[in-house]
Specification:
Order of helices and strands: HHEHEHEHEHEHH
Strand order of the largest sheet: 2-1-3-4-5
CATH architecture: 3-Layer(aba) Sandwich
Number of strands: 5
Number of helices: 8
Low-confidence stretches: 27-31, 36-41
Helix content: 40-55%
Number of domains: 1
CATH superfamily: Response regulator
Mean pLDDT: 78
Radius of gyration: 16 Å
CATH topology: Rossmann fold
Distance between the termini: 35 Å
Shape: globular
Length: about 180
């Protein structure tokens, strides 16, 4: 476990430095960071909507291990996600192959409203949305599935469980990419 914590800290430092370098090189505003990253890669994207930066680093780490051929794009709020998704109608960007949506953004109501908005848009209704949350509450699960979430994953407490949960997402990946 100690080795993982050291690797995660090194990874965080590397990602932070990359962000700083990109911001300095391109004079980017932080709100356009995800869009600039997306423009630089022709890889399929996995959209991650997560308001906790520590959880984002862990999710990014897991995605880099499980989906090396994908480029994760991080948005930290429902407002950012709506603006980002609305930009698809104005551009030639490829749709994300999967969306990982934190339920509590910071409230369940905000996450559920965003989920409902995504699934109501005909452009995105076929994109798998996997709701992720620390909550194991049955009502949260039911609410997510009632709004057409494709799956509900309780955020694991340890590295091994994170690996196991993310390996299960390969089914959505294969259906979207193939």
């Amino acid at each position: 476990m100690r080795s993982f914590k050291i690797q995660l800290a090194q990874y965080r430092a590397q990602v932070t430095q990359t962000i700083v370098d990109l911001l300095e090189q391109n004079s980017l505003a932080p709100t356009t960071y995800s869009e600039s990253i997306l423009a630089q890669f022709s890889k399929p994207t996995i959209l991650v909507i997560e308001d906790n930066v520590d959880e984002w680093f862990l999710i990014r780490w897991m995605l880099s291990k499980q989906f090396q051929e994908a480029e994760p794009v991080w948005l930290s709020s429902a407002d950012q996600a709506i603006a980002y998704l609305n930009s698809y109608g104005l551009s030639e960007k490829s749709l994300p192959v999967m969306i990982l949506l934190d339920l509590y953004l910071p409230t369940a109501e905000a996450g559920l409203a965003l989920l409902e908005s995504i699934k109501a848009n005909p452009l995105f209704d076929a994109v798998p949305v996997i709701t992720i949350s620390r909550s194991n509450d049955g009502e949260d699960r039911t609410s997510a599935f009632d709004r057409a979430s494709n799956d509900y994953v309780v955020k694991p407490a340890n590295y091994k469980d994170w690996q196991q949960h993310f390996s299960l997402l390969i089914n959505y990946w294969e259906k979207s990419v193939l």
